[in-house]
Amino acid sequence: MSDNATLRRSAKSPRPEKTALVDEIKELFSSSQASVFTEYRGLTVSQLAELRAELRNNDTEYKVYKNTLVRLAAKEAGYELDEVLTGPVAVAFAKSDAAAAAKALKTFSDANNALVLKGGVLGASVMSDEDIKALAKLPSREVLLAQIAGTIQSPLTKSAGLFQAFTRNAAYAFKALADKKSAEEAA
């Protein structure tokens, strides 16, 4: 049966459990910073468990759903993902740091050729597999925040050093003046 026939059939009389799954997927789309689609064909159960554990460390859920249900939820959420949803597809829902999730998936994909990055969603934008790879090259959220803090702190540190130098040099000048005056009085 084709996907269109399945969609028509499910649109006529969706079962409550399927409707609940579509709602769950739609909620995951809306509550996630990013969603990355992967093809996992050829991965063993232990490799999938390893991938899930790595993604969990990055506050990311890795779920396998039927493509038809993901397609319905995506359409309801406003995304057109037909070309991505072919073959066995799993979705990584990144809750907080999209770059960290993409980096973890890219690293795992590099080590295990069976995992294929297919594309994703970041905010309201649909992304290609190349976009996901570019996202993986970005520093993590913590690194970006540290860089911003360093950028803000640097001028303040320089200013504090300049103010210290002024007072220190002024103190040396006053001491030199006092020493000179006391030397003149002694002579």
What does this structure look like?
By secondary structure, this protein is an alpha+beta fold. The chain has two domains: 3-138, 2-Layer Sandwich (Alpha-Beta Plaits), CATH 3.30.70.1730; 139-187. Helices cover 64% and strands 15% of the residues. The chain has seven helices and five strands. Strands 2-3-1-4-5 form a five-stranded antiparallel sheet. β4 and β5 (125-128) form a beta hairpin. α5 packs across α6 (129-137). The longest helix has 46 residues, at 141-186. The radius of gyration is 29 Å and the shape is elongated. The N and C termini lie far apart (112 Å).
How do the helices and strands line up, and which of them pair or pack?
Blueprint lengths: L2 H10 L3 H16 L2 E6 L5 H13 L2 E5 L2 H11 L11 E6 L3 H14 L4 E7 L2 E4 H9 L3 H46 L1
Antiparallel strand pairs: 1-3, 1-4, 2-3, 4-5
Helix pairs in contact: 2-4, 5-6
Distance between the termini: 112 Å
Order of helices and strands: HHEHEHEHEEHH
Instruction: Output the CATH topology of the largest domain.
Output: Alpha-Beta Plaits
What is the CATH C level class of the largest domain, in words?
Alpha Beta
Give the neighbour order of strands across the main sheet: 2-3-1-4-5
Concise description?
With 187 residues, the protein is an alpha+beta fold. It is 64% helix and 15% strand.
Structural descriptors:
elongated, 187 residues, 7 helices, 5 strands, Alpha-Beta Plaits
